[in-house]
Amino acid sequence: MNPVKHVAIIMDGNGRWGIKHKNSRNAGHKAGLNSVEGVINECIKVNIKHLTLYAFSTENWRRPKKEINFLFNLLENFLINKVDSLIKKKIKLKFIGEINKLPKNLKKVIKNSELKTSKNLGLQVNVALNYGSKNEILNSIKLINKKNIKINEKNINKNLFTKGISDPDILIRTGNTHRLSNFMLWQISYTEIFFEKKLWPEFNLNDFRKILSKYKLVKRNFGSI
Ligand code: FPP
Fold first, then answer.
1. Cα–Cα distance measured from residue 32 to residue 161, given in angstroms and rounded to the nearest whole number
2. How many other C-beta atoms lie within 10 A of the C-beta of residue 100?
3. Could you identify the atom of ligand 1 that is nearest to the CA of residue 17?
4. pTM
5. What angle do CA 9, 12, 14 make, to 5 degrees?
6. Is the minimum distance from the CB of 175 to ligand 1 under 6 angstroms?
7. What is the pLDDT along the chain (225 residues), one digit of tens a residue?
8. Domains of the chain with CATH codes
9. Minimum CA distance residue for ligand 1 atom 4
């Protein structure tokens, strides 16, 4: 049976859920937070070490300003309101992506929540925010050049946003869309991928548990036989 150390999720389908149920895409983003909390609690329960959530991509800047602001506010309020409960659950928060390019207030809340949870030894939740995988790989190579060290796999790993984090064992994408959308392209070379028909706000514990059970039965041979 395969142990699960790291689950990564592309939380797709919020907008469509909002239109279907409440007539606004933003209502879908808000509802998506319930699924985030459910998955976090289950990861703690089954002793998963890392959960990486794709919250905002470098391409998401192409969305209407109103939706972008809503998403940033939602995240900011989530962090402000939930940080104490995250600490109680021993969760460590880490943000991966070009955080410096985010609005000042959000950056402040991010830094604060990372600092406040930095000593926690339980589940590490990595939030990919203003994240793009191609940008991350390019950035890693630029850092390697600057440090004047060898370009090899080990050094590329060490200079990614995800340095020190094991590669995901499982990648889940909800929303019935079969693509990777510039997410962790380097890190998922041997990850088991699960595409889920349900929209992110509909994704429940039963769905998550089913995927974990399926994964445990997969024979992972990493290129051998
Ligand atoms: C994709 O759905 C979802 C997002 C771009 C945002 C996800 C963010 C959250 C659930 C809230 C914040 C997260 C954390 C970690 C607290 P979409 O809008 O692309 O959906 P669509 O495919 O239906 O348009």
1. 25
2. 7
3. 23
4. 0.96
5. 130
6. yes
7. 788 999 999 999 999 999 999 889 999 999 999 999 999 999 999 999 999 999 999 999 999 999 999 999 999 999 999 999 999 999 999 999 999 999 999 999 999 999 999 999 999 999 999 999 999 999 999 999 999 999 999 999 999 999 999 999 999 999 999 999 999 999 999 999 999 999 999 999 999 999 999 999 998 788 877
8. 6-131+168-216 (3.40.1180.10)
9. 55
